[in-house]
Amino acid sequence: MLTAQIRAFKDKLAKGPVFGIFSKTSDPAFIEAAGNAGFDYIIIDLEHGPNSVETAQGLIRGAQIAGILPLVRVKEDRLSVIGEVLDIGAAGVQAPQIVDEASARAVVSRAKFAPTGERGVCRFVRAANYSSMERERYFRESNETLVIAQLEGTEALRNVESILNVPGIDIIFIGPYDLSQSLGVTGQVDSPKVLAKMAYLVERCSRKGLVVGTFVDTLENAQKWIQAGVRYIAYSVDVGIFTDACRSLVRSLGQNLT
What we know:
- By secondary structure, the chain is of the alpha/beta class.
- It has a single domain (3-257), classed as Phosphoenolpyruvate-binding domains (TIM Barrel, Alpha-Beta Barrel), CATH 3.20.20.
- It has helices at 3-15, 28-37, 53-66, 81-87, 101-111, 135-142, 154-158, 160-164, 176-182, 192-208, 219-227, 238-257; strands spanning 18-23, 41-45, 69-73, 92-95, 146-151, 171-174, 211-216, 232-237.
- Helix 2 runs parallel beside helix 3.
- The longest helix is centred in the C-terminal third of the chain and has 20 residues, at 238-257.
């Protein structure tokens, strides 16, 4: 179990920002590198990445080796996979397209054992050390895993108050790219329309005492949202970071060698 690491992560999150990245590779070396670099968490992406529950298991192992918290973003239409990724050792789940109270409650229910939810019960899984962990401890500590709800559209904005009242959600994550599409400015994450709605969500969450997260891909935006009170910062994507580093290196080599 990752209980001690989850508790340490929550303690750090309560005091200030934590930093992670999305991962769209199937190579645990990328995961280990992110952990060795000092990131707090990694989001193994099953929604927009090439991975399955089976391949994610090796990536979670890589994260545990490197001491980086392994979270998994599931597909919008596959909430049934929430229990599966927790069974293989994910420290939490990130669920996209939460649009109303019902969808928020469904995620919590699938991620938590009773009395909080109705997650399928099995202790012969990796998260329980294949049944070698004492069963009461496993079921009790499993309910400490993180639930992250993504709000990223106008429907979620209309229903925000009822979503925020659902117990069991640890982090509200604002998805700026999908939000931009729903507002008619696809990809323009710095549009005044998008920024206004994001600021509104941050303010509503702050009033409720909920931790807010978002995706950024520039240092300027990271700093801006940290100053606004966002504490769960997902900075870009591993393959994008690698591409940017390679592009910068190629340019530098070209300038220095010609």
